[in-house]
Task: structure prediction
Amino acid sequence: MTALLLVGIVLALLILRQPLLVILMSVAAYIHIVWGQAKLDYIIEDMWVGLDKEVILSIPLFILCGNVMTRGSIAQRLINILASITRPLPGGMAVACVLSCAVFAAISGSSIVTTLAIGSIMYPAMRQAGYNLNFTLGAIMSGGTLGIIIPPSIPMIIYGLVTETSVTDLFAAGFGPGILLTVVLSIYSVWVNRHMPTERFDFAHFKKAFRNGIWSAMMPVILLGGIYTGYFTATEAAAVALCYAMLVEVFIHRELKFSDFYKVVLDTSKLGGSLFPVLAIALSLNIILTEHRVPQMLVTAMQGYITSPVMFMLIVNVLLLLVGCLMTTGEAILVLAPLLAPVAAAYGYDKVIFGLIMILNLEIGYLTPPVGLNLIVAMSAFKQPFGRLCIAAIPFILLMMFCLALVIWQPWIAMYFVNGKF
Result:
């Protein structure tokens, strides 16, 4: 009866279109009253325990670093280097767009920041070069999704927090799927634009672009090299990335003034202000659910109906694809990961590989209506109707689903890079 009442409260709040923070707070309060000795002050205590983790500091630092680079010229210089390399390919500018998103994702950790930083430069350039409008929009939006799968990734950090999984292992596991997606999207870009004119490789042009962008190109090398050689933790890497971005943009490129930093910090604070209350409540809820063995009860219940790991994975993928249409990635991970990860472990799926599968599913959600964030960002940035953006995303969604299926079928694609197996 108490469980049915809880479900009724959640459904009522959803019908009333309440924000996730209100829903999670109501659920946490109800659970503490019914199963937690009726002491609501335990919520505050659990919130403190949940947030008292060093790795949480990396989230605002990566967001701030991404905003600094978006206002500076690091993205433009990276694009110039990659465009000079891909000139001989049919659709070389489209390939440069995908590769630029991949490289920028490796230093921003955010899909939205990647879409805005690369898209604001590549959209007018590709349209001027004669690329099809739908393809241009789809390439930019799908390339932007690489921001949450190529490490460092903010959703990976959140998943690691709520499931107590090594963030470094999650970062390492993201390399394989990230490379796979980048290669598949690049091959598709060449095939679609195979009749586009090409340009001869110009070493002088490449040399100039590389000289101007050497400081930008060094950033992912320093960041990822520091993490995987053991010099940096994820939090220290975020701090190093921010300091390096500030040093390059303010003193070397001189594209960012100290007066601009106030606006950058303000934008980051607004985003953090919406994220961290939800994160605190979700972590508090996770603690009490674990104390009352709710994940274990869910495992027992599901194993009574689903005996095959393949059937479990099929159901979970359908669920996550649907959830990705309705919730943002961070919200979906906070709500579902603490429940699904233990169930997946019972069916033989390691928490790291399941985390990658979950994030790959939710990555597709960035391109699916009605809550596809990259669709919404592109609608605002490129002044295109929502319907056109949805149509433009369809072939890229199919490609990403193919990559997802491949990772599930061959999990070594993700796990090869874990535990130092480079």
